[in-house]
Amino acid sequence: MTLEEFYLYHEENFDSFSKSTIKRFSAKIFNEIAAKSERETLLSALSFTDEQKLYTEDAYSLEDDGIRFWVQGTPVIIHDPMLGQALSALPPKRRDVILLFYFADRNEPQIGQILHLSTQAVNYRHGTALERLKEILEAMGYGA
What fold is seen in the domain 67-140? Predict the structure, then answer.
């Protein structure tokens, strides 16, 4: 066997190996795509009612009737009357932490900056306010 025949033999073997590897890999990818298409649905193929089940929409407006609380000059409107009544029963320092955390989407360090408190103080007020709010709501029969 000459050197040229040796190189040609290895080149043909590598070519054959490469083609079979690509064929197996493409078959694997095809099977994965087929399996996904059996269990997944395109969003554009969903019916209107099925599409509605995928999300929820909150509607907040400053013009809506509700109980309005002021935190550092910013109005926060609570649309649920029982929740608003329970929040109004909390001391203002604790109520402000709850309103900023849950209704103004602020985290504890941000609330600390707004209210000029340490993060630990905000954390303590948050915990005690939640406990007291839970007691008030249970006494009112909220969610029962």
Answer: Arc Repressor Mutant, subunit A (1.10.10)
